[in-house]
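Figure 6 in text form: structure in, sequence out.
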């Protein structure tokens, strides 16, 4: 994976994470590989049975920042600016207890916060090595940082949006009557990579009745003329930032009037929800705008999921655009606006754009036409 984040930005993130920990009376953050670690030190990779763990002290706590890594994997960390960031690499050998090593480095903490996706085997190992120390989740603290994207992150999300838009622009090459969803999906997955993603993380091609299942993926159903097809696709750029965009297409023939009418209501709901996004508006208010509009057209019951999710290094992260989330939106927050309507056994439709909150509204990162295009 490419190291792309300037070390000054990483230093700032580490400092703010330490400050946030201090504010919450957490002595140490313990973060294993995953998107939190990627955010803090720009390191890729995933957690496995050998412990790799960033030991990040709260501002004012006496432990030194350290990255505990298995000795055999140390070369894989050499490209990171860890010395510049003041993070010491501490290696351990097979046969040694890495949890005791963390405990030696930890400086007698009373309370630690572990990353939300730390494997349970490491959570329990650390618990045993730090008796009497409380463990909490680091997510609530780190999400305060990760939710507000800096300009480098917005630039990455913008590039991801443009890349997935180029794939949607090529849909006439892929979608045609007589092809199966799986065949279309394979072509789309290849195009996602061709257009600049590291991988195709998800490819949903929901044709005809399959479109009524929001998280349908691919099947061997043959696409027929007159089908409405939901295409929801995305993946990470080499830097880890995700794209995610849905368009709904009509294949081969104009769909019947009732479908076009329902689609028009959906398009208006998505448009209004995007228009409602600005600083100070609550996340749940954006959801309500889409829901109220669809309810007006008798489709409220057919919109069976939240309006959106935050996006960044994870494809689903805070803030969630859902009823009950009173979080006021702030500049730099990035999330999807993706209302849908799902008519069991018949068809479905969804329109999804990623938006970033600006000082006075939002920027849409997906700009492909939102009309029900007939291919
Ligand atoms: Zn989804
Ligand atoms: Zn999506
Ligand atoms: Zn989405």
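Output sequence:
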């Amino acid at each position: 994976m490419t190291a792309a984040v300037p070390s000054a930005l990483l230093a700032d993130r580490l400092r703010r994470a330490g400050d946030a920990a201090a504010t919450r009376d957490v002595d140490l953050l313990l973060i294993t590989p995953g998107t939190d670690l990627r955010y803090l030190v720009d390191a890729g990779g995933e957690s496995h049975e050998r412990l790799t763990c960033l030991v990040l002290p709260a501002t004012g706590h006496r432990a030194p920042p350290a990255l505990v890594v298995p000795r055999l994997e140390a070369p894989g960390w050499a490209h990171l600016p860890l010395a510049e960031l003041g993070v010491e690499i501490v290696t351990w050998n097979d046969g040694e207890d890495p949890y005791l090593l963390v405990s030696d480095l930890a400086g007698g903490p009373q309370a630690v916060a572990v990353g939300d996706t730390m494997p349970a085997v490491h959570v329990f190992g650390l618990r045993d090595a730090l008796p009497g120390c409380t463990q909490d989740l680091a997510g609530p603290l780190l999400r305060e940082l990760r939710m507000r994207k800096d300009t480098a992150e917005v630039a990455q999300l913008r590039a991801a949006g443009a890349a997935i838009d180029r794939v949607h622009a090529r849909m006439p090459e892929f979608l045609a009557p007589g092809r199966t969803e799986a065949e279309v999906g394979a072509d789309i997955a290849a195009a996602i990579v061709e257009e600049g993603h590291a991988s195709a993380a998800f490819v949903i091609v929901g044709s005809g009745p399959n479109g009524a299942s929001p998280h349908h993926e691919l099947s061997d159903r043959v696409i027929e003329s007159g089908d409405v097809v939901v295409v929801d696709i995305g993946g990470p750029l080499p830097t880890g930032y995700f794209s995610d965009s849905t368009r709904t297409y009509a294949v081969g023939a104009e769909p019947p009037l009732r479908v076009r009418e329902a689609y028009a209501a959906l398009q208006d709901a998505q448009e209004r929800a995007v228009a409602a996004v600005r600083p100070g508006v609550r996340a749940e208010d954006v959801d309500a705008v889409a829901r109220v509009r669809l309810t007006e057209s008798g489709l409220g019951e057919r919109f069976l999921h939240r309006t959106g999710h935050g996006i960044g290094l994870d494809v689903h992260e805070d803030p969630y655009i859902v009823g009950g989330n009173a979080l006021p939106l702030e500049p730099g927050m990035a999330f999807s606006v993706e209302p849908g309507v799902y008519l069991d056994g018949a068809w479905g439709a969804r329109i999804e754009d990623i938006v970033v909150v600006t000082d006075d509204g939002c920027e849409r990162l997906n700009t492909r036409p939102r009309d029900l295009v007939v291919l």
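Caption detail: The chain has two domains: 7-146, 151-374.
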